[in-house]
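Protocol step 4 of 6.
Sequence for Sec-independent protein translocase protein TatA (Sphingomonas kaistensis) entered exactly as in the expression construct, tag removed. Do not edit the line below.
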Amino acid sequence: MGGFSLIHWLILGVVILLLFGGNRFSSMMGDVAKGLKSFKHGMADDEDEQRRKAEEQRRLGSVERPIDVTPNPRVADPVAPPPPPPSDTIPR
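Step 5 output, structure tokens:
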């Protein structure tokens, strides 16, 4: 009762074809496909631009800044206090 069956989808498709006509409907679908292709192309261009900027920054960053090779001793982590000794008697 809640969903569409195959016959409902077929009737809906026939009504849409009658309202819009086969030619107009196919041209609308073609326009949708062109829009999706241009959107994907724009996203790929943005990714290429970001990749190119990151590569340029990486290249310029390695030339301008010298590599620091001085030793940097790590400060010892503070030691946690030892746990209390276990008691031999069990409280009741």
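Step 6, annotate. The chain is about 65% helix and 0% strand.
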